[in-house]
Write a structure and sequence with these properties.
Blueprint: E1 9-12, E2 18-21, H1 23-38, H2 54-69, E3 73-76, E4 82-86, E5 94-98, H3 110-120, E6 126-131, H4 145-151, H5 167-173, H6 180-184, E7 195-201, H7 206-210, E8 214-220, E9 222-231, E10 235-236, H8 248-264, H9 266-269, H10 278-287, E11 289-291, E12 295-298, E13 304-305, E14 308-317, H11 320-328, E15 334-340, E16 343-344, H12 347-365, E17 374-377, H13 382-386, E18 392-397, H14 421-424
Parallel strand pairs: 5-6, 5-7, 7-18, 8-17
Antiparallel strand pairs: 1-2, 3-4, 4-6, 8-16, 8-18, 9-14, 9-15, 10-13, 11-14, 12-14
GO molecular function, one term: metal ion binding
Keywords: Endoplasmic reticulum, Hydrolase, Manganese, Metal-binding, Purine metabolism, Signal
Protein name: allantoate deiminase
Amino acid sequence: MICGCNEYLGAENAEGIKYDLFPEILKEEAVARLNELGKLSDANGYLERTFQIPASTRAGNLLRAWMEDAGLKTWVDQMGNVHGLLTSFRSNNVLGFSRRISSGFLLGTFPTHCSTIENEGIFRLRLEVIAFSDEEGVRFQSTFLGSAAIAGILPVSALQCFSGVTVQGALRANSIETTEENLLQLKYEPESVWGYVEVHIEQGPVLENVGLPLGSVKGIAGQTRLKETVKGTQGHAGTVPMNMRQDPMVAAAELIVFLESLCKQPDYYLSYDGQCASLTVESLAGSLICTVGEISTWPSASNVIPGQVTFTIDVRAMDDTGREAIIYEFSNGLLSYHDANAVVCDPGLSTQLKSASYAALRRITGEDTGDVPVLMSGAGHDAMAMSHLTKVGMLFVRCRGGISHSPAEHVSDDDAVLAFLETLL
């Protein structure tokens, strides 16, 4: 039991067992630990903790120490995931919570809450905290290395992904010997897992705009990434007449404008047939997002008409059929392709998260804050990989300006709360 505070929140779980929470102490410790994790970086001025680099190893060791202090059984698996298991339980189910080491958000809070609840002896489920080793895929351009291994969908060929060193070599440099055989053994059996819940900053402005710190997530958008190359005829900028030019930059600009129009008004461009029904087009109106993120020219010079222009396209939507219809309209000149289907969060878990968020907000503010928003995630998350193993749920926490993946990323101390535990007890 965490003590030292006269004011606490009394609560009662589904079995009628009463327990106490001390929100101010929990918040202060969570914020302090987040700040401590935030100092572990291999760069100055911003957070850099990619797969198996020194800062990520130090963060994993720190997290493991916190878990052990809270009484959790800990271990590091062959993909570098840090596990913490609450061993006092009343069933054989496992509830997994995750934050990746590279982001650090909420990594330090779970052991605090686990310690409080374990001492009260109120868990109906085994609680496992997993700090996944890599979600973003920054170092090896292979996303979800940690969670995909747990879900059993990571191909053994991923060990040979190369970026100065192989994934296998990077693990070995940190005294983790990973073979094809023990990599396959990391897979959890679906029947051993009750569910998976992930807490993440929204990475968007919706919660901030409506003035609420929490929102339930209904699903994660499917993603398609394309690299489009437009070829033309290279020439001198000052000597080739306008009516004789084959300028790929102009063609690329027209394609980008077309993509913008296509994604803003999909109902205008897509036809209704067996593959693209009217309901599909309607669903795109609320979730379709298209972005051109990179443009490069060859040769790149101010006085030369380029001979080639390459640009990237990122298309995301909750409706996979509609997303595929958008891609079909934009399929010519495809060079490389990344595709991941949408993930729908479990309705039961989403309802519990929404209810718990509402209860937490009302308890904290003392007011009826109204309905908790239900949002779509347009970003990639470990929950996408874990959905192959078990039902998933997500909770969003508002972030200032909707900014993420930036030194300006910010979540207020008051919003750094855990809102779903009492509903799942």
